[in-house]
Amino acid sequence: VRVVDLRSDTLTKPTQEMRRAMFEAEVGDDVYGEDPTVNALEKKAAAMLNKEGGLFLPSATMSNLVARTPPDQNSNPYLINYRPVLISHPVCAVMSHCKERGCEAIAGDSSHMFLFEQGGAAQLGGVQMCTLPNKSDGTFDLDLMESKVRSGNDSLHEPITSLICVENTHNVCGGKVLPLDWLDELGTRARGLGIPIHMDGARLFNAAVYLKLPAARLVRDCASVSICISKGLGAPVGALLLGNKDFIQRARRVRKVLGGGMRQAGVLAAAGLVALDKMVDRLELDHRRAAGIAKAIATLNSAKFTVDLNNHQTNILFININSNDITSHNFCQRLATVSSPGAWYIFRQTALFPEMVFV
After folding, report:
1. CATH 3.40.50.300 holds for 16-278
2. pTM assigned to the model
3. pLDDT value at residue 154
């Protein structure tokens, strides 16, 4: 029996072309900005997303954290009315947007940044997260968002809202693609508020492929975006943070203090170049395969295990357990006869979301 491991889209293997590129990569010292392969990857990713610059990091978790420290008003067209704040040593997206302790970032309450990154913004950056209820499509109410913005001008007791974070596609909401009209409206409101947007785009290219649009269109109003190359794109390691040049310069400092500065990182970046060149369009195949699994489960006509075919979009599938006789724990124990590591992971997911099993 051939077991296909569907615990996560991180369980990929580099292609032979990636392995060759890694073996042959020209390298230098990336901490000094002298690795030509890393520089090429950063330049390519920035061009794909229509941003001024990019920064290669070990993981998307670090990339999101780096992004949370505020951009300078003069260097960011989206921050026309940005409120000035004191600047202290930054800690990388959150920490590069929120430059002082006492800042606050708005995010959905089901976002990966809030649930699954150990509260890194607070732990390392002194940045508090203000959460809004995520809707089933991964969005949140924009009127409610505006009501939660705090300038610090009215009260010395309040943190200063310095960043708005979104996730596209949205993991916990089942790989949902954020609606384009919602993103556009968010961009309009954020500009009016003078607050930058950071997108956790770990699966951004899944969203772009689903919408049949360039990825740059989806991040048009975002001051920064993080993309992961080690999920569906298949590279073994790495993420990229994109934004304007001043932001990337600050992020580079934050990356260093977080221990993310790598030396001859071109060996890893080479696989990333292949991923961006060859693997983006292939994500549609992942979507079709996930849809095929969903349809196969639906054709069982089981009252105990169901999937919502109408709401499935990309490469993440939730199986609903509708039975008092079968708990998520029992189900995972039975799965353990096929793959115990996978069953353990699914159990962890259902411990957080008991009505759903993540595939």
Report:
1. no
2. 0.86
3. 72
